Amino acid sequence: MRWTLDGPGGTKIYSHILQSLLAELFTPDEITTIRQLAPADRIDPAAFTSFDYWLGGPSVLTISDPGFTGGTLNFPSQGVGRYQVADREVFRPLQYCAAHLMMVDERAVWLARAVVSDSSAHIEGLVKRIGRLRFLPLGSMLRKRAVAAVLDPTTLNLALRYTPIFNAAKHDFSQDKDTHMFSLQDALTAYFVCRRLAFRLYPLASLATNLHVFDVEPASFDPASGRLTRASS
After folding, report:
1. Taking the model in full, what pTM does it have?
2. Which of 35, 95, 109, 116 is deepest in the core (most CB within 10 A)?
């Protein structure tokens, strides 16, 4: 089944796929935490950024260095990306996710689709690197021998099952009037599914960026201004 009618007005929600993937990538305790990050459809910024940082790698609080501004990788209110310019197509989508997910007011649900799309683009960028393929959609790349023969069967299966989520975020706008394709909880789930799936892909992606560059003290987030600041010394 491609989608379920699950939500106000029969809105099409791809929650069943996301929840299945979540169950395979996270422990029950971690899933409980993720489900508590957006009470009343508003992200709890302290809880979200804490869990995201705990996962390691390019989190909201480590993907950029807020102490620097200007330059090719600068992102308003976030700072300069820590990754190499050569890996921009891989890591830039996570900077967009960081900016979207830091909208902590009632407008956050309007960015849910963007969070899903940009989280997915991070995976797509990694798969492009693995297969040395360009100009193909994610699902097609995953079925090419250059990718399918390299990924372990579990990772390939996870990525293939995630692909309809990315396709929906990019192309499917046929949900009922005045509803959203993805809820805020869907967006958070997609973000964390992609974050953990990415760890399975990083070693295969021939990145110019050394992932240890993200092993830094987390930046601080000011919910009033939406800005990141350098970690307190």
Report:
1. 0.90
2. 116
What DSSP assignment string belongs to 134-191?
-SS-HHHHHHSHHHHTTS-HHHHHHHHHHHHHHHHHHH---SPTT--SS-HHHHHHHH
In the numeric block, the tokens 């250059």 are attached to: 146
**pLDDT-derived band at 228, boundaries 50, 70, 90:** confident
| Geometric angle at alpha carbon 71, from 220 and 96, rounded to 5° | 55
113 Cβ neighbours under 8 A, 6+ residues apart: 169, 180, 181, 182, 187
> If DSSP codes are grouped into helix, strand and coil, which group holds residue 31?
helix
CA dist., res. 94 & res. 59, Å (int): 8
pLDDT score of 15 more than 80? yes
Q: What is the distance of C-alpha 24 from the center of its chain? A: 17
CA distances from 61 to 49, 50, 211, 220, 230 (A): 7, 9, 14, 7, 9
Helix (H/G/I), strand (E/B), else coil: 81: strand
- DSSP β-ladder status, 64-65 and 4-5: unpaired
The C-alpha angle with vertex 57 and arms to 51 and 59, in degrees rounded to 5, equals 50
DSSP state for residue 26 in the 8-state scheme? S
Structure tokens at 211: 């992932």
> CA-to-CA distance for 190 and 165, rounded, in angstroms?
8
End-to-end alpha-carbon separation of the chain, Å? 52
4, containing H or E segment: strand 4-5
Distance CA 76, CA 148 (A): 38
Give me the pLDDT at residue 123, please.
98
